[in-house]
# Entry
Amino acid sequence: MTEMVYGTVVPQAGEAVLPRWWRTIDKPTFLAVFGLFAIGLLLGLAASPPLAERNNVEPFHYVVRQAQFGGLALTVMVILSMCSPKNIRRIGVALCLFAFAAVLMLPVFGTDFGKGATRWYSLGFASLQPSEFLKPGFVVLSAWLISASHDIYGPPGRTISFVLTGIVVFVLSMQPDFGQAALIGFSWIVMYFIGGASFVLVMGFFGIVALGGMFAYSSSEHFARRIDGYLSPDVDPRTQLGYATDAIREGGFFGVGVGEGSVKWSLPDAHTDFIIAVAAEEYGLMLVLLILVLYGTIAWRCLFRLMAERDIFIRLAGGGLTLLFTAQALINMGVAVRLLPAKGMTLPLISYGGSSLIASGIVLGFLLALTRTRPRGEFADMIGARRGR
# Structure
């Protein structure tokens, strides 16, 4: 069984499941997750009424849906956080295989909802974006392959994971979905480096990525337009970036007031990709800093606990999942302040979107399970453990 040397937990005979679970998870991470979700609902109250008006539904229709999806996501997170690392590996591998199969079938059964990229399945009552679920599954699968390569007579896990990464990145780029492809590629690079790869190999991979970016720029008008807009010294005030920049500037330190912001009426994606602009305009820099602190708390706590972990798979999977979660948040906010090129990517736990919320719940459930405090020796996991191992 895996060992966690950070802290000690003495198993108590007859202890109920929930008290035992609460005693072993990282509470600051758990509470930070609920803080981000609460902020998401608060910002949804501000950002979603204009969307509801355009679609002729109740003013808080999308807030209610966000609460429903969020409740499901938090439930999934709690259930997964009770699993053993072995079952996390099994769930992650199965999730990766099913999600990748769903991505492959998108050209036949998917839809683009008028956004120029076929990334979703329309379910009637909701939509499903399989690439959101592919990310955590792929990280777990890659961590398992790379860790297996350290075993005596183990499989060539690094080579296999490299090939799989190339296939997944290529398929996502063809949608096109360069943002998700970049997240998966970057997460794999970090895990590959943590797993013992030389710096030269990592830099070589970055070179391949750079060549891929040049090819995408020359072959994709959509990609080239976004890069040109990012490199331009001037921002068109009629674009989403222009509206977001003005909103952030107007917000100042304390914002213009609750419900007083105007950017939500101009930005089509104010409730998703540019939700941080709504936060900055109505609540100011103070709320943005709080959001950064909460994301930072999750990243720091997870990495701090993983540093003491002796199991290679847990270190790799936990590190990759932590990077996946925090990098997506940084990319979303970096786009809003024009530090990065425009990229359709949600802010985890805060932006509206069922697939994004539930996928974030899966990522955090995996992380909470992998960073649970365990005693030296055996630890009877609450779900899926075998006694007497």
User: Anything to note?
Assistant: The chain is about 65% helix and 0% strand. Residues 17-370 form one domain. Residues 329 and 347 are 5 Å apart (CA to CA). The chain has one domain: 17-370.
